[in-house]
Design brief:
The protein contains 22 helices and 13 strands. The protein is of the alpha+beta class and about 500 residues long. Helix 8 crosses helix 9 and helix 15 packs antiparallel against helix 18. The termini are far apart.
């Protein structure tokens, strides 16, 4: 995409490109999203940046009107399997905050200098600057949605000192923490956090400082098929771990979630806002906020580019009617990759309903009970370390399937198989296939959901083949669907089935 094309997108305030690039205005020192409603600047005064961190590094401050830090992420980071794409997924998951640049580099298999050079060359900012931009966004969310003191927010967002916290906010937002808190957006805001101050989970499963949790508006790009996503999650919800409350069209998905420092309860509403989903996070540790947001975004596939998907898949004669019938269809990911992998084994060669029964049994037998149940939520998913030698006799499965569960749990626990956000997908799939009892369907399903790969097609899946027959699609011609074959598969899963004669 040329700079002239980017400027055309800015002139037309095209929200399709929000998160794909940012632009700075030299005369004001402010950077914006392409859809910013402010007066369009002259072309000679505009500079373009691939990331918000690059704009900040060039000395531009975030626009208070369009809040460019609240846009969806670029779909490129999920589609790309190279080091830059993997690094961006891991930075989003908080790896730099927890392990530093050296930890990020070690996970990528490069030196810290190589990672710095590659990211700076392509994105205009290194890993520290990218993580810093994310910390600033987290701090703004906490300032505008909780009653916590600024010093508590500074460390919860990942800053090493209050002074660093204050300096960063002044540089990025041209405002002090007090001024940002006073500028809490109302319901008319475009996207980002909103709502009354919330609280965090106490160690006893209750809440401190409120009952609503941290309220968020999780932005997405283009149309979003909420019914498809919520139906998909509802059919697979495990008792005690997840629940779906309310009537279709106004449902709320709730679940417990393990995070790096502690646990959380997540709530996401089906009824969308103007380009966002309402979410509430009740965290035991506020330091987990950034990671929790990214994992929810992956679960609901909020960074997808439905325009690019529709353009590619709609060019196929057989898929075109399906794409037209379900605009904004998504490919749900996973909030907990280890959990998803083990659930994939439970779902081998059985129906979704049967896999759900097995999952319910696993939660009842091995899940960690909450000290205080919260509605229908009673357990956390068991740790892989606790399942590595579990007998699984309660599940009523054959010994070979139980052995596969133990083998996979052991491989995840000892790091033989890694399912972190930036894992090398090809390598991970090869490692999974090397485990006894893991075949192409299971490894592909894990790759699609746990690793958020948008280009997986489970050709042996019975429902996929049935959907393809009904639509008149030929799986052997699926090369033309790349790099969005996961979305093609969801279209085939949702395709109308021909009525029997």
């Amino acid at each position: 995409m040329s700079d002239d094309s980017r400027y055309e997108a800015v002139c037309s305030r095209d929200a399709r490109f929000d998160g794909e690039f940012f632009f700075g205005v030299a005369t004001t020192g402010i950077y914006c999203r392409p859809s910013c409603p402010a007066t369009t600047p002259r072309r000679k005064n505009v500079r373009f940046f691939p990331t918000s961190a690059a704009a900040q590094g060039a000395g531009f401050r975030a626009c208070r009107r369009c809040r460019p830090d609240a846009v969806p992420g670029s779909a490129d980071w999920n589609a790309r399997a190279d080091a830059v794409g993997r690094a961006m997924r891991m930075i989003g998951d908080g790896v730099v905050d927890r392990e530093g640049v050296s930890g990020l580099a070690a996970r990528l298999g490069y030196s810290a200098r190589q990672v710095q050079r590659q990211l700076t060359a392509e994105l205009g900012a290194g890993p520290v600057a990218l993580a810093r931009a994310q910390r600033a966004h987290t701090a703004r969310i906490l300032l505008q949605t909780t009653a916590l003191r600024a010093s508590e927010i500074a460390f919860a967002a990942g800053f090493s000192s209050v002074r660093q916290f204050n300096d960063t906010l002044r540089e990025i937002y041209a405002a002090t923490p007090t001024e940002l808190r006073a500028a809490r957006p109302g319901k008319s805001a475009l996207s980002g956090p909103t709502g009354a101050p919330g609280g965090v989970l106490g160690t006893n499963g209750g809440t401190n400082g409120g009952t609503a949790g941290v309220p968020l508006r999780l932005a997405y790009r283009g149309p979003y098929d909420t019914a498809q996503v919520f139906d998909y999650l509802a059919r697979r919800a495990l008792t005690g771990l997840e629940e779906m409350a309310g009537a279709p069209g106004a449902r709320t998905y709730r679940r417990t979630l393990r995070l790096p420092h502690a646990c959380a309860i997540v709530e996401v509403d089906e009824r969308p806002g103007d380009g966002w989903l309402e979410c509430r996070l009740r965290l035991t540790e506020l330091r987990d906020l950034t990671t929790a947001i990214q994992r929810i975004r992956r679960l609901f596939d909020l960074d997808a580019d439905p325009y690019a998907v529709a353009e590619r898949l709609g060019a196929d004669v057989a898929l075109a009617p399906l794409v037209a019938a379900r605009p904004g269809l998504r490919s749900p990911g996973a909030a907990d990759p280890h959990e998803l992998a083990l659930r994939a084994v439970l779902g081998q060669q059985v129906s979704v309903a049967a896999g759900r029964v097995l999952g319910n049994g696993l939660i009842a037998a091995y899940g960690k009970p909450l000290e205080r149940p919260d509605g229908g939520l009673t357990h956390l998913f068991p740790r892989v370390e606790d399942l590595a030698e579990a007998p699984f006799a309660e599940l009523g499965m054959v010994e070979s399937r139980r052995a596969t569960l133990r083998t996979l749990a052991t491989a995840l626990a000892d790091g033989t198989v890694r399912l972190d956000a930036g894992a090398d997908r090809d390598r991970t799939e090869k490692e999974l296939l090397g485990l006894r009892g893991i075949g192409p369907w299971t490894s592909g399903y894990i790759r699609m959901r746990a690793l958020s790969d948008p280009d997986v097609l489970l050709e042996s899946d019975v429902a996929v083949r049935a959907g393809a027959r009904g639509a008149g699609a030929h799986l052997e011609d699926s090369e033309g669907w790349r790099p969005w074959r996961s979305y093609a598969m969801h279209h085939l899963w949702n395709a109308p089935r021909p009525r029997p004669a």
